[in-house]
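Deliverable D5.2: sample structural annotation.
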Amino acid sequence: MKNRIWRQLIAVVAGNLIYLVVEPHLPARGQHQLYKVDFGLVVDFWICLVCYGLVRML
């Protein structure tokens, strides 16, 4: 269980860092607006999900 929590933490932090770097280059629809549920959250979620898959493979 401890390993799973660390993997999830690494994936979320790495995914959010990647999203913050990529966000200015995304179209307006892909950029997250504060305090709103929008397509930017979906993009951020998918990046974190991909990072989690990569962390699990390692």
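Annotation notes: The radius of gyration is 12 Å. Residues 2-57 form one domain.
The annotation will be released with the project's public dataset once the embargo ends.
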